[in-house]
Design brief:
Length: about 140
């Protein structure tokens, strides 16, 4: 498991290591989870993850152990992070708008809550969920 180390001052601003008042270590899994949680309120995102990830997520949900980072992959390099995201969109939502809204939500969440600069968010739409399909519960 990898992590990001940030030197934080009492006002939340980055400080040089020599004058640091402590070190904050944020595990990469936490960054991925925050990205996944940011998608809960994005209109048009039905589910996160590909087919296998959603099947595993359904099993986890059945035993009350949801994985909010499902379908989210991150790569942290210093104070920057790149995100790869896999989603199922709701039909008939405009797919480009769903991807743009998901991208904005993830960037806002990571930059505001974690303090890392998001360099890119790559969105893959694996499927479109039709309103009459009852195979899985919507993202919430």
């Amino acid at each position: 498991m990898t992590s990001t180390t940030l030197d934080i001052g009492s006002d939340g601003a980055d400080l040089p290591a020599a004058t640091s008042r402590g070190t904050t270590v944020i595990n990469d899994a936490v960054v991925a989870k925050i990205a996944g949680l940011a998608l809960r309120d994005v209109t048009g995102v039905h589910a996160v993850g590909g087919g296998a990830a959603r099947a595993l997520g359904a099993i986890r949900e059945a035993i009350s152990s949801a994985d909010h980072s499902q379908g989210v992959s991150i790569k942290v390099s210093g104070s920057r992070v790149a995100v790869d995201l896999s989603i199922v969109a709701e039909y008939p939502q405009p797919l480009q708008q769903v991807a743009a809204d998901a991208r904005t939500a993830i960037i806002d969440a990571i930059e505001n809550l974690v303090g890392l600069e998001v360099t890119e968010v790559n969105v893959t739409i694996n499927d479109v969920h039709l309103p009459d399909e009852a195979d899985e519960a919507p993202l919430s």
